[in-house]
Structure formats: C-alpha cells, structure tokens
Amino acid sequence: MQATMTFASDLSLVDVYRARRRLEGRVLRTPLVESPALSALAQTPVFLKLETLQPTGSFKLRGATNALASLAECGCRQVVTASTGNHGRAVAHAARALSIEATVCMSALVPGNKVEAVRALGACVRIVGRSQDEAEHEALRLAREEGFAYVPPFDDLNVIAGQATIGLEIAEALPEAGNIVVPLSGGGLFAGVAFAARSINPEIGMTGVTMSRGAAMHASLAAGRPVQVEEVESLADSLGGGIGLDNRYTFALTRDLIDAAVLLDEASIARGIEHAYRHERLVIEGAAAVGIAAVLDGVLPADRLRRGPLVLVISGANIDIDQHRRIVNAV
Ligand SMILES: *Cc1c(COP(=O)(O)O)cnc(C)c1O
C-alpha cells in the first residue's frame, strides 16, 4: 500500500505552466476542432483535440520534452528508455532537439522498421535480450550503473506535467467544456489532463476509456491497488502494458480524478478508426480512437453529456498503414 500513498499535491499547476514554457517552440499547441457528425450523434457539441499532429505523431512528445528539458537544466546529457512505441520516438525526437544523447533499449524481437524509426530520429539503439522485460532491465541497469537518466513513459511528475499542458490548452480554448474523454493506459495522459482541467474548473467531468483486453489501470482501480493483468494483442496497441506494481503517481491521481471509466471491445475500436477516416478525414491509431468509439457506442454517461461540450483527446496517429487500410476497407 505504501507505493500508492501519493497525493495530488506532489504536482502543482505551477509545474504545468513551467512545462508549457519548456514546450514552447518544440511541441505543437494542437487545434481543437468541432466534429459535426459526432455532435449530431451525442446531441451535444463534440470537439477533437488533435495530438495526431505532433511531430512524432502522438502527445507523448509533450511529456518527453518536459522531462528531458528539465533534466538538461540540471546538466544531464544522457538519457535511456526502453519503449519501442510512441514514448521511444518522443524521447528520441526530444533528445535531438535538446542536444541530449538518447539510448533506447529494445529486445531482439522488435521488428526492424520500429528499430529504424528510432534510429532515424538520431537515438542510439541497444538490442538486448528477447523480451520487453529484458530491454527494460538493461535500461534500468544503464541508469543505475552508468549514470544515464531513465525516462519513464508515464509514472513521472515531469512526464505527467508535460501531458497536462493538453488540459491547459483545452481549458483556454473552450472554457465551457463539460467533459473530457481521455484514452487510458498507464495514466500519464489521464492524470495530467485531469489535473490541469480540474485545477481550472473543478466541475469538469473526466472520463477514461480503454480496451477491455488487458486493461491494467481499470483492473487496478477495481482492486484498489496496482495489479498485473495478462497482456494480449489489441488494435489499441499503445494502450497495452502494466502500470507498475510500484506505481508512484498515476494510479493515485487517476483514482482521485476519474468520474467514469469505459471499456471497449475490438470491434468498437475498429469502428472508431473507421469513423475518424470516413467522417473526420483523420488517420488515427486504435488507442486514439477509443473516445470516438465511446460516442458511437453511446456508452458515455448521459448525465455528463448534458454538462456542456464534450472534448475527445485524439492521442496519436501511429498505426501501421496496411492495418489501417484493412480496417477501413472491412466495412
Ligand atoms: C501512450 C499512449 C496512450 C496512453 O497514455 P498513458 O499515459 O499511458 O495512459 C494513449 N494513446 C496513445 C496514442 C499513446 O501513445
């Protein structure tokens, strides 16, 4: 239980404003655009916060940039992480922009195109072992024994404060927003957005959406403590993975700030991707489609929809393009 005894006061709105200043000129202030099709369905104005437009194709650039910029301020010049997905790309991109050396540890089973994508962003790739766990282990060893700074994907105050700048932008662009819907995995995005939005408007509704297959945060909220779940493949691949049994911040913040949690099956996520393409002209990945899918399925709590405009955080665009083509052609 000790690990979960954390308080929102670890994070302050000042940290979020400091993050915003670090992000200026490095990360996009993304547009918030209304969706006529989804507004008609939800019978309330629906707005999309387009993190798909960030240079690396996902919001992860915000947290990584804030974490790396804050490390650079302390004289750190070498960082390490073990993510092969959006966090790995974000760390590589932010490191290059800040003239920091980034090392990304990956297992020998990571597909060549993912390895190349991270290398192309200027990071050093270290291939170790045959599982994500072994890669993670090596990243932590480099941090412990060789003085690299380890950059976690979500459970870190600077990462959370970086993602929280999305909440600031929403509150400024649409002060009358009644409800924000956020894809939920490790909870860095949810905790950050909810913390900033609630600090500004304590009445705002916060909904977390995730896939029903392998939803670690959802199971942890139900159990009242971080628990492990079996990892299975999902269209929302960026929402996979655990929250860490020794979770320090995101579990408690999510637990304290969430009003409603929604689970979706794979068919719903596919419909979300397809709707985004056909009706919004957006190519988005499965993790980013869960908010749209929740509107299409009519599973958002009706009382919350009456509070005012609904904002969906469209978190990323990095879907395999052949997989995308199969999904949008399957209908
Ligand atoms: C990482 C990620 C998420 C989930 O963010 P957490 O902070 O882990 O909850 C959602 N969507 C995309 C596209 C992501 O890359």
Automatic annotation (TrEMBL):
<dbReference type="InterPro" id="IPR050147">
    <property type="entry name" value="Ser/Thr_Dehydratase"/>
</dbReference>
<dbReference type="GO" id="GO:0009097">
    <property type="term" value="P:isoleucine biosynthetic process"/>
</dbReference>
<dbReference type="GO" id="GO:0030170">
    <property type="term" value="F:pyridoxal phosphate binding"/>
</dbReference>
<dbReference type="GO" id="GO:0006565">
    <property type="term" value="P:L-serine catabolic process"/>
</dbReference>
<dbReference type="Pfam" id="PF00291">
    <property type="entry name" value="PALP"/>
</dbReference>
<dbReference type="InterPro" id="IPR014333">
    <property type="entry name" value="Ectoine_EutB"/>
</dbReference>
<keyword id="KW-0663">Pyridoxal phosphate</keyword>
<dbReference type="InterPro" id="IPR000634">
    <property type="entry name" value="Ser/Thr_deHydtase_PyrdxlP-BS"/>
</dbReference>
<protein>
    <submittedName>
        <fullName>L-threonine ammonia-lyase</fullName>
    </submittedName>
</protein>
<comment type="similarity">
    <text>Belongs to the serine/threonine dehydratase family.</text>
</comment>
<dbReference type="InterPro" id="IPR001926">
    <property type="entry name" value="TrpB-like_PALP"/>
</dbReference>
<feature type="domain" description="Tryptophan synthase beta chain-like PALP">
    <location>
        <begin position="27"/>
        <end position="316"/>
    </location>
</feature>
<dbReference type="InterPro" id="IPR036052">
    <property type="entry name" value="TrpB-like_PALP_sf"/>
</dbReference>
<dbReference type="GO" id="GO:0003941">
    <property type="term" value="F:L-serine ammonia-lyase activity"/>
</dbReference>
<dbReference type="GO" id="GO:0006567">
    <property type="term" value="P:L-threonine catabolic process"/>
</dbReference>
<keyword id="KW-0456">Lyase</keyword>
<dbReference type="GO" id="GO:0004794">
    <property type="term" value="F:threonine deaminase activity"/>
</dbReference>
